[in-house]
Design goal:
Two copies of one chain form a homodimer. Chain A is an alpha/beta fold. Chain A contains seven helices and eleven strands. Chain A has two domains: 85 residues, Tetrapyrrole methylase, N-terminal domain (Cobalt-precorrin-4 Transmethylase, domain 1, 3-Layer(aba) Sandwich); 124 residues, Tetrapyrrole methylase, C-terminal domain (Methyltransferase, Cobalt-precorrin-4 Transmethylase, Domain 2). The two termini of chain A are 37 Å apart. The interface between A and B is large, with 73 and 73 residues.
Chain lengths: 232, 232
């Protein structure tokens, strides 16, 4: 809650209805009072967002809650896509309120790994072919981007992260720093520093963000730092 | 100010000293009371950060203010690099407080362009060779990343953005949506929707973020949307 913006807090407090994945709604419990709740599980996001849009069509002011930034792999796009299916004259007005992204929260905990160009890639292949994801990892590694991985590993999908490691090792040294942040800014938060050669042995799950340094990234005094290039 | 987090506001209010680029300090005027101010111009960031570190060494609690997220091309890295030059036993403790990034703020104003993998590239060649930047643009374009450009154009440097346009056009259609957000969440904010073929004719400067869509990005009802891939 310390990382929520005033604008987001006010939008939630002034809403008639709040829609969100249940564990995320628990994180904002102190902002919930008389608002009606639409809470469903993680995999029912289309149904949940459709229910939110339906409430807005009835004239309610609805706050749809994402964790992190709703505009980065969040619910902003789905809500906008669903409203586009409504005839223009009755389409509800949408405001996207940005938040602190998971990658930004993870970076802050690690030190300053995003001081230089970076690529953000989700390893979830539920909605994207693995070949597309893999090509992005290859290009990002070849161009020396810092690489941030969302959804790096699930119980079902354990091989993609190893494949990304293999790809990155073709372009970067095995001692390239890798940071793993789990449950950033939530209960159970963990921050782990490892290396490109070894990081897949660490505990990684769907609540983790993995940050692979570029060729200049270093670790000192427990901080992962990608230098901007100042001559100090 | 509506987009600042509680944690950031509290850190500024409870500091003994605030250091920052002067126009950014004006944005947080309501949080400034008895704190001492270290304010310098844009190009003096090393001096400003060194002065902030020196104050911390004297035992002061210092808040260094960046716009956007201090961890994304911001002051977090420079502060950490400067403190690394201090012997470990007297090194001040650093906390990086994440914020809403300029790219996230720009994306929210445009709609939902970052629902899929994206690459963030600064076109400033002050600290990075242009050949490195250009290769990143090429790889990002080839791998169908949404591309976010920081520092896209200055009065001195007008050709890089045209070169990036040329590169992107080798991989994407000329009618690929491009969004330009100037002064996101500040006075004078402008939001412009254009296309890959035409966007360089729009007004773009160092206070702008340029977002180039991927092959699936579309514009409808004034919103720039990169679909996540749900079957609706």
């Amino acid at each position: 809650m310390a990382d929520i913006s005033r604008r987001a807090a006010l939008a939630i407090q002034s809403a008639d209805v709040i829609a969100g994945y249940k564990p995320y709604l628990e994180l904002i419990a102190e902002l919930v009072d008389r608002q009606e709740i639409i809470g469903t599980g993680m995999m029912q996001e289309v149904d949940r967002c459709q229910a939110a849009v339906d409430m807005a069509l009835k004239g309610k002011k609805v706050a749809v809650v994402s964790s992190g930034d709703p505009g980065i792999y969040g619910m902003a796009g789905l809500i906008l896509e669903l409203t586009m299916q409504i005839p223009e004259k009755s389409r509800p007005k949408i405001e996207v309120i940005p938040g602190i992204s998971a990658v930004g929260a993870a970076a802050a905990l690690l030190g300053a790994p995003l001081m230089h160009d970076f690529a953000v890639i989700s390893l979830s292949d539920l909605l994207t072919p693995w070949e597309v994801i893999k090509k992005r990892a290859e290009m990002a590694a070849a161009a020396d981007f810092v690489i941030a991985l969302y959804n790096p590993k699930s119980t079902r999908r354990v091989e993609h992260i190893v494949e990304v490691q293999r790809i990155a090792l073709q372009h970067r040294s095995g001692d390239t720093p890798v940071g793993i942040v789990r449950q950033a800014a939530r209960d159970g938060q963990t921050v782990t520093l490892s290396t490109l050669a070894n990081f897949t042995a660490e505990y990684i799950d769907m609540f983790s963000i993995v940050l692979i340094g570029n060729s200049q990234t270093f670790v000192r005094d427990g901080h992962m730092i990608t230098p901007r290039g100042y001559h100090l």
